[in-house]
Specification:
5 strands, 4 helices, about 140 residues, alpha+beta, Ubiquitin-like (UB roll), about 30% helix
Amino acid sequence: MSDAKKIMEMIKEHDITYVDLRFTDIAGKMQHVTQHIDTIDEDALTEGFMFDGSSIAGWKAINESDMTLMPDLYRAYIDPFFAQPTLALFCDVLEPSSGEAYERDPRGTAKAALAHVESLGIADTAFLAQRLSSLFLKMSKLTCR
């Protein structure tokens, strides 16, 4: 059974109304696009969902804003905080023309870093985190006028 098929079964079993496609922007802020289940099928889950990357600060200009959210079908859970039954899927952000990971997607960067560490043979596990100091400096510049 395909993973997309398992997700579709999970949607039916739990009477899911919405699927929330989640990703992280370059500053580490969680972003999301919520889809009604009428737009969800096995093809969409395996081919990804198009979205406008120009709406995310620091990502794309309007003339090159098409991007793909590719759900990680192994990272699905029912979000207990939504009013309607909602399945949350974490996504990779891809360039639609090439299918390559978008260079400003922190999840893609983390996957590339892990693959690099593994290829060097120095570790099979890495713990990665965003450096908050740069965010604090940026925030202090904004508030100290």
